[in-house]
Amino acid sequence: MEIIEKIKTNKSIDNETEIQKICLNKLQSSPLPNPKSEQWRLSNKSKFSNFLDYSINEKDPKFDTPFPNTSQGTIRLVIGNNCQINLIGENYSIQQLSQDELDKYIKEQISCFDQDENWSNLLNLSLSNTKNILGLKINGSKIPSIEIFSHSSSNALSAKTLVIFLEKNCDVELLQVNLGKENSSLSQSTYFCLDENSCVNHGVVSYGENRSNLLNSLNVIQQKNSEYNLGSVHFKFNYARFEISIKQSEGNAKTNIKGMQITKKDEQISTYTKIEFNGPNGFLDQINKSLADDESHAIFEGTIIVPKIAQKTNASQLSRNLLLSNHAQIDTKPQLEIIADDVKCKHGATISQLNEDELFYMRSRGITLPEASKLQLSSYFQEIISFIPVSKDRWDLLDKLLNEK
Amino acid sequence: MVNENLVKDVVKEPYKYGFVTDIETEKIEKGLNEDIIRLISQKKEEPKFLLDFRLKAFRKWQKMKEPDWAALGYKKIDYQDIIYYSAPKQKEKISSLDEVDPKLLETFDKLGIPLTEQKKLTNVAVDAVFDSVSIATTFREELAEHGVIFCSISEAVKNHADLIEKYLGTVVPASDNYFAALNSAVFSDGSFVYIPKGVTCPMDLSSYFRINSGDSGQFERTLIIAEESSSVSYLEGCTAPMFDTNTLHAAVVELIALDDASIKYSTVQNWYAGDDEGIGGIFNFVTKRGKCLGKRSKISWSQVETGSAITWKYPSCLLLGEESVGEFYSVALTNNLQQADTGTKMIHIGPKTKSTIVSKGISAGNSKNSYRGLVKMGTKATGSRNYSQCDSMLIGDQASANTFPYIKSQQPNSEIEHEASTCRISEDQLFYLQSRGIEFEEAVSMMVSGFCRDVFNQLPMEFAAEADKLLALKLEGSVG
Fold it and tell me: Which of A95, A316, A326, B419 suits A163 as a labelling partner, its CA being 20 to 30 A distant?
């Protein structure tokens, strides 16, 4: 764990910024998360240490996207491509946050970080230099859809940070793509601030190549009457963690989450979500799907916290899991912590394999077993994929998932 | 609009089993060390294997740490400030009920557990445990005719040492957890049940646990063995007097079911819960586990938890035998400053095993009620199924309800379903009932009873009535 040794001896980064200093200081006393804590208990230790085995990458090679070219009316940004962003359209503006704004916001966030819960964020901020932090302020309506890329480079650890402020009454579609190169680690932290009456359809597509690792953390703060919709899919990583923390700071907001993780071979992908309602009339609808094949391990842990102030909260959480092999493993733990009495909260979890009756029916109609399985899987995937803001004719995600070897 | 205070008043009910029996008792000195354990063992005239078992457990316990993962907050327990053995003084060995101190009989009578003639009508055999010892077991001759052994565990140690040696600690090993280790070291009494092959126990068996002394803990141990094709229904009840201090209760229950055997274990737990300010009350740390060893064996836990300041209890099933079945039905009611962290573990090891979990939590006042459960499908548990349902009801805006289900599957050819919901007493339903002329408190009581119906249906007749009454009592009160 090269990187940890460097953090301990404070040799990880040259010319560190103030934020990096603060985070490194926090990490130095206990550089690793507590393996016994609930959030890290199931994490595969050797895979996790593999994540930390690479040294930090200072220079990004040229980015060649395997992703289809932009269509008209789409804005594409790559974190780390050092260019000044200032887009002003008829009804909208997308501007880069000033260094002061960015520093102030990040410092505020760090002050309430917990060592175990926000370890990924701390590591990310300790490692990502000014170049790799992108801050955007989005305002207006009829905004073209935005695509933001972050990628790792082979044999290195890359850290990228994205901060987005959505101003009042703003409505936007944003697709975030995280790409893991062969033998690499990517630490991605994203911060979203949704101001009143704003709405975002956020898509997160993360996929890796051979033996790539990902630590993806998403932090969202919603003001009242805002709406946050997240569709996410993670696949093809040797080791990946997706940590979602959503705070409805005054309640009265809407959150929809549809996430999916697909593990094959000996991969381990986990999703941890924590949703806090700090005001009344909050709404949450969450579904998380996992598919585990071969010798892989899929994990989901979701917490819903409803304090006394959050009366009339309506929250539901569903974890659906498909276990397709005798050697694969699925762990799921949906949790409710409720103090308010006038609430509707429910959760559900299922683990099963493909429906045999349906397979039998299709086979009796002349469809072969592989085709029938594929049909079932596509309906299983479709619910999530249709929630990710990317049109099928541009990028057929379903096809990619079904035909991924 | 429901008047919140009204609902709160309704759930207040003074504890009616809080009296102390003034009886001369024999206590040993406070504290815990190897000498104390030797003394307990000596007092009970135990064979050497049991003393060794106790000492081994004690040494393990010394190295263990008190668990802190449960969603409970309580002041640290001083294990050296507890009396580990307390027994009502009796001059000679009792051979019949007539020789039992009338004060003791009176106590159990007052608790609604008559040990004398009357009880015969209800066809339930009772083992009554007072502090650290069993004082009487009824219907023994009748049971013996069928080959059923039902006695206190101390007697079983003397008369059936082979069975004890063979099975004790096989389901809950001494090193299982902190409280199980403590119990293994100092357990004083409890019940022992052995149902021979092919016998359906002719009557329900029942144990009644009473803590009387304020400074002694109760550490009972229950062992039930159901041989091939046998079946038994076992009931357990608990009460304690009101004291300002907290009393520790750490019990271990082990069930073993062989081929085609079935065990139904029901508990109505009504230990003293402490007063409105949370002073006093029993700390209830219990390890209950059943092992479905045989094919098609079945273990069913049903519990109604209404008492205790702290409840830490996870009756579990190890499903080893092919097609074995585990069930867990629970109602947990917490009020004032009570805290309960309860649930179950269903470990599916054998193929085609099935389990059902139904848990209902009701939290009122400032209480905290958590469901914590584990469902695990091992690699060999092909064709296994689990269904879990945990519902919580909140009364008042100070109470909290948590659900922590852990679900783990390593077997694709198995199915797990879990669902949970949280709600409160529906105003519409209350309004409807009241508009039909039903009193407010009766309406609340009806709704709570309806909420718990799935679980009450699983309780044996006598207990279902008692449980319903108990909840109604807790919910009845000063309205109007």
Answer: A316
